[in-house]
Specification:
With 459 residues, this protein is of the alpha+beta class. The protein folds into three domains: 3-90, Uridine Diphospho-n-acetylenolpyruvylglucosamine Reductase, domain 2; 97-207, Uridine Diphospho-n-acetylenolpyruvylglucosamine Reductase, domain 3; 210-429, 3-Layer(aba) Sandwich (Vanillyl-alcohol Oxidase, Chain A, domain 3), CATH 3.40.462. It is 31% helix and 22% strand. The strands form three sheets. Strands 10, 11, 12, 13, 14, 15, 16 and 17 form an eight-stranded antiparallel β-sheet that branches. The protein is globular, with a radius of gyration of 22 Å. Bound molecules: flavin-adenine dinucleotide. Flavin-adenine dinucleotide binds next to β3, α5 and β9.
Length: 459
């Protein structure tokens, strides 16, 4: 791209937009190029902050004509691969949200975050399939799959999507559903941002006004015993209960009191949808087994769902990776305990999310999502504010995964994967048949791989 051509085209584009356009020369560029996830450092040639779908159309056509790649950012919680020299389309101003109480559905534009949907749906006693953090964007979460606190009862968020509006790489705004552009509709659900910019999404809501949820904490030295108890507990759980077990190491950061730094604990987090007494009876099994050091379980309005995980709200330099397990063998538990409780470990969490239920039962041909039989989604993550810290976290995760390998499913949940790992792992997220179909769709809709900053369907 020559300088003269870029300046000319940027000016032309500016004239077409209701939203804003930023280049490296603009004072606001520096803040705009960063998302929530501070480990992704990117320098796009042009940033378009879109006000509406027509702005997105203009930005995609601009990129198409210049042969530039396009990345999409709503909140920046899930940035995959830094967009350097391409066009970054920021959708955060596209906040339109409609709730249809009669059909129990919502239509959200590309910049809507879950917090907004939770509040609007709650007015009708309805709830969305939000994940652990209400501050995550509806779009990135849902397109990647979306495993939340209602997952075992109602499935992944992507399974509840029944319509999308998308600007495809040719710059056309299309609708996709089971009856319109159904091939695209199949592929977009589960493949992240590979097929264009989704400008709006329609999805189901569920009649959940209250939940029974909270945490139990156990000291880190009980990690092995707690994991074994978790294995047995999850084997007999009703689908109304969705849970996770996290081995947490408090990071050694200046803002953390010295006596707390490096301290380990094991935390059960769970949400029961339905009669609170039935949920409490399931949690009572833990209390009968071993008293926790703290217990926050209670009945609460769905609007408080974010308090169950208490995920960080402020931007963070997290570096996560993902694995999946079909069962939790004693050998796998031993590896987890060894790596997670190692005093020299740079990781802050090793987490298992219990899957199964409606995730497994869903129609496997309906969308691209694979690994429906995985029983546990695993996340390993550390803080990586510097290059050295990132290298240490990546190397530790690689050794951890290698030692766990004999006990792993081999699958992966791509919403929990970043950077260079995507090249190696994207294929593990799908069945061979679905992967071939996705690659063919990519050839059809995006032969130049314009949307190349998401999951790596093609190199
Ligand atoms: C604190 C935290 C908690 C989380 N909890 C969960 C959880 O409980 N369950 C779960 O499943 N995941 C969870 N995630 C992972 C999360 O789902 C992904 O990071 C997701 O990609 C975030 O989506 P976003 O739109 O907020 O992020 P963004 O960084 O803005 O987008 C991420 C990616 O999604 C794609 N994308 C975004 N918008 C569009 C669009 N309009 N059109 C096309 N593609 C688009 C792009 O590829 C983009 O790079 C969590 C992440 C964090 C950081």
């Amino acid at each position: 791209m020559t300088f003269a051509r870029q300046v000319l085209s940027v000016d032309e584009l500016r004239g077409q937009l209701k939203g804003s356009i930023l280049t490296p020369a603009d004072p606001d560029y520096e803040a705009a190029r960063r998302g929530w996830l501070l480990t992704v450092d990117q320098y796009p040639a042009v940033i378009v902050i879109a006000n509406d779908a027509q702005d997105v159309v203009a930005a995609v056509r601009f990129a198409r004509d210049l042969g530039l790649g396009v990345s999409v950012q709503s909140t920046g919680h899930g940035l995959k691969i830094p967009v350097d020299e391409g066009v970054l389309i920021i959708t955060k101003r596209m906040k339109g949200l409609q709730i249809n109480a009669a059909s129990r559905t919502a239509r959200a534009e590309a910049g809507v975050v879950w917090e907004q949907v939770i509040a609007a749906a709650a007015e009708f006693g309805l709830a969305p399939l939000v994940g652990t953090s209400p501050h995550v964007g509806v779009m990135g979460y849902s397109l990647g799959g979306g495993i939340g606190w209602l997952a075992r009862k109602y499935g992944l968020a992507a399974d509840s999507v029944h319509g999308i509006e998308i600007v495809t790489p040719d710059g056309e705004l299309r609708r996709a559903s089971a009856t319109e552009n159904s091939d695209l509709f199949w592929g977009v659900r589960g493949s992240g941002g590979n097929f264009g910019v989704v400008t709006a999404i329609e999805f189901s809501l569920y009649p959940v006004a209250t939940i029974y949820g909270g945490n139990l904490s156990y000291p880190g030295h009980l990690a092995g015993e707690v994991l074994r108890f978790y294995r047995e507990w999850t084997k007999q759980l009703a689908e109304e209960m969705t849970s996770s077990l996290t081995l947490v190491k408090i990071p050694s950061l200046p803002q953390v009191p010295e006596e707390m730094r490096g301290r380990m604990s094991v935390i059960l987090k769970a949400v029961y949808v339905g009669d609170a007494a039935a949920g409490a009876a399931m949690i009572q099994q833990w209390l009968d087994w071993q008293m926790p050091t703290s217990n926050t379980f209670k009945e609460m309005p769905f609007t408080e769902i974010g308090t169950v995980a208490n995920d960080p709200v402020d931007p963070s330099p997290g570096y996560p990776s993902s694995e999946m397990l079909d069962e939790l063998s004693d050998e796998a538990i031993a590896v987890m305990v060894r790596y997670a409780t190692n005093p020299r470990s740079p990781l802050t969490i090793s987490e298992l999310r219990h899957a199964g239920g409606a995730i497994t039962r869903a129609d496997r041909s309906a969308n691209a999502i694979g690994n429906r039989d995985a029983q546990f989604y695993m996340t390993m993550a550390g803080l990586a504010p510097t290059v050295e810290a990132r290298t240490a976290v990546e190397a530790y995760i690689q050794r951890y995964s290698a030692d766990l390998k004999p006990y792993l499913r081999g699958g992966v949940y791509l919403n929990f994967v970043r950077g260079s790992e995507l090249g190696k792992r994207t294929k593990d997220a799908y069945s061979a048949e679905s992967l071939a179909r996705l690659v063919a769709l990519k050839q059809q809709y995006d032969p130049a791989n314009m949307f190349r900053y998401s999951y790596r369907l093609v190199e």
